[in-house]
Design a protein that fits this description.
The chain is of the alpha/beta class. It contains 6 helices and 9 strands.
């Protein structure tokens, strides 16, 4: 990956990854991250069955905050543990969650019908959207509960992307 991204990755993208405390996730999955030179974005690769099916970019400075490079409806899923999977809004939050469990970014606050097939394999799901989307999180939990063994809502005081591994473990405590 360093050959592909060169010094731009080392400065801008790695600073972003460090700022949000998911360097361990990057180290385990470097192929899941790229740098969009033209758009100045950290790119999160969306993978299904080992094949890249899309990508989502996060602006590192200016411009549209998030940019979807594809038209597929595949959520961004990054494995970090088998005991729990956490449904979040964005890729950064999913990567932070992946320090202790599996992070699943819906890439917004809407659960699409297509998302359900990707979430069914997980036996222990927690829906943890940003505080302003608590009503949507409860609605998503209701829809998912009929498809998985266990699905709960975690009502957040602040976005998971601002947490570290220890605080994520504490928040998910009894749910794990």
């Amino acid at each position: 990956m360093q050959n592909t991204l060169g010094k731009m990755l080392l400065t801008k993208c790695l600073n972003y990854i460090n700022e949000f405390n998911f360097m361990s996730v990057y180290d385990k999955n470097p192929e899941r991250f790229m740098y969009d030179v033209k758009g100045d974005r950290l790119v999160f690769m969306t993978v299904y069955d080992g094949v890249v099916v899309g990508a989502v970019g996060r602006a590192l400075k200016y411009g549209i905050k998030w940019y979807r490079y594809d038209t597929c409806h595949t959520p961004f899923i990054i494995q970090g543990g088998d005991s729990i999977a956490v449904v979040v809004e964005d890729c950064t939050s999913a990567c932070v969650v992946a320090t202790v469990g599996t992070g699943i970014a819906l890439l917004g606050t809407n659960l699409l019908t297509e998302h359900i097939q990707y979430l069914k394999p997980y036996k222990n799901l927690v829906v943890a959207l940003d505080r302003d989307a608590t009503d949507k999180a409860i609605d998503i939990q209701r829809k998912l509960a009929i498809h998985v063994d266990r699905c709960k809502v975690l009502i957040l005081e602040r976005d998971l992307k601002y947490e570290n591994e220890t605080s994520i473990k504490n928040l998910l405590g009894e749910m794990m």
